[in-house]
Every structure is written in structure tokens, then in C-alpha cells.
Write a structure and sequence with these properties.
mainly alpha
Length: 80
């Protein structure tokens, strides 16, 4: 068994015994930020194209705006 594998199994054992945390719950919490980024990206991409096609804002402003909007759910998911 490699050192990284031993360390990972020890960390999971410690979480289960000392912190009373279940491994499944920890895995779901770990997956929340990338999942939020994926869903936000799927929704923000077409919205940004729509805003640019209507010429409501420039391409630069749309990129900056939707980057800000895209980072917000991920940061919220990190707080859970």
C-alpha cells in the first residue's frame, strides 16, 4: 500500500471516529462545488450568448459579468 493510500484511509477513519462524519456525506460535500460549476456553466453559456446577440452589453462586459455570476454558486457550495 502506498503512502498516499494509507494516508487517505487513515483520514477517512479519523473522520468517522473522531468527527462523527460519514464517508458518503463527505463525498457529497466534496462533489458540491464542481457540480455547482457545471450546472452554472450550462445555464450561463446560453444566457451570455443571448445577451451578446441582443447587443445589450459588449462581449468583454458579458464575459466579466457571467464569470462573476458563475463563481457565485461555486463559492456558496464551498460554504456548505
Amino acid at each position: 500500500m502506498s503512502d498516499a493510500t494509507a494516508h487517505a484511509s487513515y483520514a477517512m477513519m479519523m473522520m468517522m471516529m473522531m468527527m462523527m462524519m460519514m464517508c458518503v456525506q463527505d463525498s457529497l460535500l466534496t462533489a458540491a462545488p464542481p457540480l455547482a460549476a457545471f450546472i452554472t456553466g450550462l445555464l450561463a453559456g446560453p444566457a451570455a450568448d443571448f445577451v451578446i446577440s441582443r447587443r445589450w452589453v459588449s462581449v468583454t462586459v458579458a464575459r466579466k459579468l457571467f464569470t462573476l455570476v458563475g463563481r457565485f454558486p461555486v463559492s456558496l457550495a464551498c460554504l456548505t
